[in-house]
Amino acid sequence: MEKLLRVIFFSLLPATALAGETKGLNTGDTAWMLAATAMVMLMTPAGLALFYGGMSRSKNILNTIGMSFLAYCLASVVWVLWGYTLSFGHDVGEVIGGLEKLFLKGITPETLSGTIPELLFVAFQGTFAAIAVAIASGSVIERLKFSTWLIFVVLWITFVYAPVAHWVWGGGFLAHDGALDFAGGTVVHINSGIAGLVMAILLGKRRHYGKKAFFPSSVVLTVLGAALLWFGWFGFNGGSALSANGSAATAFLITNVAASVAAISWMATEWMFLKKPTLLGAASGAVSGLVAITPAAGYVNVLGAFLIGLVAGVLGWFGVFVLKKKLGYDDSLDAFGVHGLNGIWGAIATGIFAVKSVGGTPGVLEGNLPLLWVQTKAVLITVVFSAVMSGVVYGIASLLTGGARVPEDVEIEGLDSAVHGERGFNL
Amino acid sequence: MEKLLRVIFFSLLPATALAGETKGLNTGDTAWMLAATAMVMLMTPAGLALFYGGMSRSKNILNTIGMSFLAYCLASVVWVLWGYTLSFGHDVGEVIGGLEKLFLKGITPETLSGTIPELLFVAFQGTFAAIAVAIASGSVIERLKFSTWLIFVVLWITFVYAPVAHWVWGGGFLAHDGALDFAGGTVVHINSGIAGLVMAILLGKRRHYGKKAFFPSSVVLTVLGAALLWFGWFGFNGGSALSANGSAATAFLITNVAASVAAISWMATEWMFLKKPTLLGAASGAVSGLVAITPAAGYVNVLGAFLIGLVAGVLGWFGVFVLKKKLGYDDSLDAFGVHGLNGIWGAIATGIFAVKSVGGTPGVLEGNLPLLWVQTKAVLITVVFSAVMSGVVYGIASLLTGGARVPEDVEIEGLDSAVHGERGFNL
Amino acid sequence: MEKLLRVIFFSLLPATALAGETKGLNTGDTAWMLAATAMVMLMTPAGLALFYGGMSRSKNILNTIGMSFLAYCLASVVWVLWGYTLSFGHDVGEVIGGLEKLFLKGITPETLSGTIPELLFVAFQGTFAAIAVAIASGSVIERLKFSTWLIFVVLWITFVYAPVAHWVWGGGFLAHDGALDFAGGTVVHINSGIAGLVMAILLGKRRHYGKKAFFPSSVVLTVLGAALLWFGWFGFNGGSALSANGSAATAFLITNVAASVAAISWMATEWMFLKKPTLLGAASGAVSGLVAITPAAGYVNVLGAFLIGLVAGVLGWFGVFVLKKKLGYDDSLDAFGVHGLNGIWGAIATGIFAVKSVGGTPGVLEGNLPLLWVQTKAVLITVVFSAVMSGVVYGIASLLTGGARVPEDVEIEGLDSAVHGERGFNL
Amino acid sequence: MKKVEAIIKPFKLDEVKEALSEAGITGMTISEVKGFGRQKGHTELYRGAEYVVDFIPKIKVEVVVPDSLVEKAIETIMESARTGKIGDGKIFVSPVEEAVRIRTGERGEGAL
Amino acid sequence: MKKVEAIIKPFKLDEVKEALSEAGITGMTISEVKGFGRQKGHTELYRGAEYVVDFIPKIKVEVVVPDSLVEKAIETIMESARTGKIGDGKIFVSPVEEAVRIRTGERGEGAL
Amino acid sequence: MKKVEAIIKPFKLDEVKEALSEAGITGMTISEVKGFGRQKGHTELYRGAEYVVDFIPKIKVEVVVPDSLVEKAIETIMESARTGKIGDGKIFVSPVEEAVRIRTGERGEGAL
Ligand SMILES: Nc1ncnc2c1ncn2[C@@H]1O[C@H](COP(=O)(O)OP(=O)(O)O)[C@@H](O)[C@H]1O
Ligand SMILES: Nc1ncnc2c1ncn2[C@@H]1O[C@H](COP(=O)(O)OP(=O)(O)O)[C@@H](O)[C@H]1O
Ligand SMILES: Nc1ncnc2c1ncn2[C@@H]1O[C@H](COP(=O)(O)OP(=O)(O)O)[C@@H](O)[C@H]1O
Q1: CA B107 vs CA A238, B112, B120, C14, F90: distances in Å
Q2: Chain E contact present for D52, CB below 8 A
Q3: Residues B315, B288: Cα–Cα separation, whole Å
Q4: Of the four listed, B69, B393, B398, B414, which is most buried by Cβ atoms within 10 Å?
């Protein structure tokens, strides 16, 4: 009786106070995670698809959207087949998950993961894998073969995403190191940003890149996509608390602040240097802020979020307008410039701005200097692993499809009509 | 005291374990159902409106969107006036609900339905009625009079939707038969698909149908619509658990798997037969999978979902590319080909793949052969009833508006400008 | 022990029964408020941005969208810096909040506000401030300087929105008066509608206004925007219960009814007087209904919602098609005609139709005549305060940017290309 | 050679194209134009204001033909584009001095 | 008959149309074109790269008029389309040998 | 003066424009047109039905030049627009009797 009461009592307290406590299903936590998972889902086939599609030329808008849409579909399937167990199966040597949950074997509607059904946890995590790989597509649009892309998606989730997810969240070595990554800055954004960069370099530039104007088919759709991404990101970061509690609330608010500040700081930078504040800049800035705050969302306070966002907007702008030009690769929609760079900045910044009273771990500013090294190490390992493995996986996909690049006449005609036999608009 | 404790205790357990138990409001369940209802709402005036609008010719895009938008508005009103009580009022002869809740009489904010406020249950169910009728519009766009449509909506909810909803969910005879329909495969999708088919046949083909190319105004909007439908469908299927529990989680995950697989299988079929994988195909495939999994969402496991989705994509493609051509009707946006066929497939498949450990009822593969007959009977009854009654109701609407079809010059000019005095885009 | 049990017990009851009770975090309430906040967020950079953007001419669509998008970003930042404490800090003379929560000082993830984390309450309220100011932009699009707008946003939130929010919700004098405003009819809609009107008058008409046709760039996007607004409004009104309870459910259902009826009544009015039922009308009608029901959402029953919506659609139409023409100002997208007028109607109607058994306060129809005066007073005070202060704040913003109006050649060229160097579409 | 230029109603395009093909004229160039003439545009209502849309969407068909085919082209277009209602459009004939096929460099009537 | 073809700035269209109507020229056909000339296009920035957009949106107005009205048409257009700034556009006059009204079959100046 | 009118493949526009500029022809007007000729359109599949899209997007380039420059213009366009594949397009030359610069009122070749 006593024990029963204790269980009841605790299950009504803020969940943060209960970490590690065994307990039953909490309908409030489950309700939030159901909504959050739906919100994260929307990010890929709608948010990212429009964000990217709007930036591609109108003759390639459907192909660009299709890369996100199909990435979502394939990732969802791979995830329940073997991705989940590779990431969250029992730990094998701190490197990868075991295979006991292949095809979700043994998980019933009653199985719990913390206070929510494990099947919901599976779904939630699956949406992360999907958006990670979809982000990378931004680097290679308008010239990658559709078939190469589909194969790349399957391989990348399996050999690149699943291991890194295991290291950070599945009980792997980065988790044991104490690396902080609240909602996937390393796993999702650095990982995909690097994958994009590697592919962009291997694949080469688009015809006439840098010589002719490549006008975005629709900045309106890009802004709408950014808004949907932002909406979904509340599920992404807020849901990473896995509970409807103070930590989720913090992550929510802080995410909003960082995105807002970064949108403003990107636009302000543009305004200063180029005299025109663009909507494309505001949208890209918001996404930059969202990326940078992702690893930090449960660990920093409003002030930290403000500074992280401020830098993120400027850094994203720098990545796109300065770095890319200088280094000369064609990271078409800046998966690296926006996601890669800001993922790195976010991971480091988490080490700097973490606040003990928020997430339990103090950061550099509170005297915990070693955390900076832990974070940096996690970044470096992810960068190196992702670069090498993404390259390998890309090479295999390229081989299997007789080269990764569409023929020149397809590139000129546009992939929508040549590959899909469709046009984005017939107005 | 003991009893009180038991109530408290149970209300913290997975709700599935508690079916039939009297209990108070559960904030977690209520939270989920609030979110789910909003998600389902979005499906009609945004998701379906864009999915259909993007497939219509640009001169008819607003009229097509308007059919969904106004269907939602009218259905919402009819629902609170008399639709709800006809469906969920006290059972009258297992055929229809009584009239005691006309205009929601007697339902206060405190009235509960299970663990959630009854008013919320009313709202949730109302969104189902709305999307059901809106789906049927896909068969008759670009030529049906707007006034005929508005009258049809009111009549159809009253005389076709409400009875079927009562049979399955309101305590009617199909429920007593043990027919399984988790989230409305029969009530919503078969019902509306058949209604669409009947109308398409009665109304006749569009001018130049099959001779001239009718290009979709925007596949981009169609894909966005499909993504929004998918998002909303988590509320549709997950919400049909009426609780934030393991059943909702199962429905959520399984819905996602079926949609993903079906998008892939439709696209793959196209790729094989027609050499072009289209985005329109991927979007239609996703919707096919979502339709097919609807009745099964709480009863099958991941393997079942996989197979249901696999077939759904191919079946949808077959309905649209083979069957329609063969039979020669102009089911313009394939309400029947996609919703009708897959609704039927889903109902049968639920009987085949149901798993006792998931939803409490074993299916054919677990030895429960009779279930197949129960499911088939439910399908047949719905098909016949819907076909006859939709025809009657359409006839009345047609009579009241002096014929259901717009004059030929309106059809040529386009309904947007001729009927609404507007254009979809002035870019 | 006894007390403990009582707490547990009550926290499982409908929250309405518990007003004022001290209690811990409720995960169900928190889950709903997380979802609701995300939904309200979506209203500004997506819903309103498209609703307004679609109505602007295509050469100004990005600028129009940018006004909403940046308003959201700036408001979010101002809110956590000083807006929240001005609205919800400790009461200073019933007029304004104190400064003790500047930069959210002292609020940790554990701090509660009722049964939810205070940080979540901060986020929720911030989205209200953002949409309020964004609504006002509808009156001044296509000619206001972007820089003037950005400064106006910051000042208006600080000096106009924060005080009024404090009066009604932060313990100010209107709350003490007993004025009913469930979700912000006065604070958000009257306030912003009046601000828009004042700016429209001060700024003057657009070139060729009333002489040349200003065609909406895309009614399709406007309808999509309206649907997203509607979706978000469930969070707006339903979330204003601050709990997942019967009050939230009532607000949800009633919001849906009013919006539906108003969409129908606007369209019907048009159909009668102008022979064309437009989609722009249906979308505007839905928004009119949503505005009008906002203050009433937790206080009236379905019948009340029906009547409020019925009038709202006609009133909005009247404001846009009759009043505006007569008075001759260029309230470009009718922030006043739709939000201002219907905000006023909603506030009055709340006084008329309030039902004791729903929200605890009887209205005029239940014999509580004085409520009408309380409501009217709240309206009048808000109108006068908002008119004067919005004018002052606009004047300052205008001064700081060397005039509020763009040069004539920018207006002719279009603000997208002249100010932002972008185009909305390159199809 | 002459250029025969016809301004027609958009929904007549397919008929005109087919008629011309049957008449042996297999090359043509079309563009979307707007016309102003006897046929009056419609009225559009937008947010309470009423506007007359003067310009009516038309299709311009251009065919360059040898002198011998001019009359045939005119008649073919007339027959296939006519509805008998105001706004059916016009045909204008003007001289063309030279034609070149870019691909081969052929000149004159052979280039058509 | 002559075809008078004017390339003008888009926002001048309404003035030109009204001026022509007043001058008794009630039929015309317009189309959206892009021009390249002395007037330089603007620079667009997109994702860090700068591009000059050479082609500037213009409207082409075509009126076919009897010889007697050519000068009047030219003057009317010149007056109503001029802003005095570079890029105001050009007027070209070319011969038209025949005009046909599709609806009635009328030919020559009567068809205009 | 003559009008040299070329129907070319859209992706050749930049080359043609640059070649003409180099040849000293600095004014031109372009428009989007659709062509029908030897080059066959592609087949589109939509919801199970197959359609041939006859009309292929082309760009029409119009330059009015003094008689002396006609040959140069033709050759320049031919060289820069040629791919050697069917559908490269045509050039038509027709007489222009007068040209006017709207801004200044200049007439004749000086107005070009
Ligand atoms: N003088 C003209 N010059 C150029 N185009 C003309 C002229 N007159 C008419 N058109 C074109 O022909 C179209 C049809 O002319 P309209 O007067 O409306 O009817 P109809 O052809 O029956 O006489 C107009 O919309 C316009 O595009
Ligand atoms: N030689 C030409 N042939 C055809 N169109 C021309 C020619 N020269 C100029 N144009 C058109 O006239 C427009 C205006 O010419 P531009 O040289 O910019 O200014 P202006 O008319 O003041 O001399 C150009 O944009 C182009 O459309
Ligand atoms: N007789 C004609 N009159 C006007 N335009 C023509 C004519 N013949 C061809 N064209 C235009 O030229 C384009 C190219 O012609 P086509 O016959 O396809 O190839 P090619 O130029 O290689 O002979 C066509 O798409 C059409 O726009």
Answers
A1: 35, 9, 11, 15, 76
A2: no
A3: 8
A4: B69
Q: Does C109 touch chain E (CB under 8 A)?
A: no
Per-residue CA distances from A135 to A73, A162, A204, C326 (Å): 14, 16, 18, 52
| Subunit contact C412:E11, Cβ cutoff 8 A | yes
Cβ distance E102 to D6 less than 8 Å, yes or no, reads yes
Range of lowest pLDDT (A202-206, B296-300, F55-59): F55-59
Let me know the angle formed at the C-alpha of E88 by E82 and E92, rounded to the nearest 5 degrees. Answer: 95
Report the CATH fold assignment for A28-420.
Answer: Ammonium transporter fold (1.10.3430)
What is the Å distance from ligand 2's center to F26 Cα? 8
Q: Residue C147, exposed/middle/buried by CB under 10 A (0-12, 13-18, 19+)?
A: middle
Lowest mean pLDDT of A6-20, B265-279, B346-360, name the range. Answer: A6-20
Q: Could you tell me whether strands E98-101 and D90-95 are parallel, antiparallel, or unpaired per DSSP bridges?
A: antiparallel
Q: Do chains D and C touch, with touching meaning 3 or more CB–CB pairs less than 8 Å apart?
A: yes
Subunit contact A278:E45, Cβ cutoff 8 A: yes
Chain F residues 35-54 with CB within 8 Å of chain B? 44-49, 51, 53
Q: Give the number of other Cβ atoms within 10 Å of residue D97's Cβ.
A: 13
Residues 6+ apart with CB under 8 A from D28: D17, D20, D61, D62, D63, F35, F36, F37
Q: Which pLDDT does position B23 carry in this prediction?
A: 66
Q: Do A110 and B246 touch (CB under 8 A)?
A: yes
- Give the model confidence (pLDDT) of E45-85 as tens digits: 677 666 777 788 899 999 999 999 999 999 999 999 999 99
Reported as half-sphere exposure (CB side, CA atoms, 13 A), residue A262 has a value of 35
Reference C212, options D41, D49, D42; nearest CA is: D49
Contact C224, C65 (CB under 8 A): no
Tokens of A357: 């009273």
* Cβ neighbours of D3 in F, within 8 Å: 92, 94
Question: C73–A357: do the CB atoms touch at under 8 Å?
Answer: no
Look at strands B116-117 and F28-36 and give their pairing: unpaired
- What burial class does residue A314 get, using C-beta atoms within 10 Å of its C-beta: 0-12 exposed, 13-18 middle, 19+ buried? middle
D vs F contact (3+ beta-carbon pairs below 8 A): yes
Which string of b and e fits E61-96 if b means at least 16 CB within 10 Å? bbbbbeeebbeebbebbbebbbeeeebbbbbbbbeb
Ligand 2 centroid – CA F106 distance (Å): 13
| CB E5 near ligand 2, within 6 Å | no
Mutate to test the interface with E, among F32, F103, F112 (most CBs of E within 10 A): F103
Indicate the domain borders of chain A. 28-420
Instruction: Return the bridge partners of D99, or none.
Output: F92
pTM of the model: 0.94
- Give the DSSP per-residue string, A388-424: HHHHHHHHHHHHHTT-SBPPHHHHHH-HIIIIIS--S
Q: What is the ipTM of this complex?
A: 0.93
Measured distance CA(F28)–CA(F59) in Å, rounded: 12
Distance CA B171, CA B320 (A): 35
Of ligand 3's atoms, which has the minimum distance to the CA of residue D63? 3
Which contiguous run of DSSP H or E holds residue C91? strand C91-92
The verdict on a CB contact (< 8 Å) between E2 and F31 is no
The size of chain E, in residues, is 112
Chains F and C touch (3+ CB pairs under 8 A): no
Shortest Cα distance, chain C CAs vs residue D59, angstroms? 20
Distance from CA of C152 to the nearest CA of A (A): 15
The secondary element (H helix, E strand) that includes residue C274 is helix C246-274
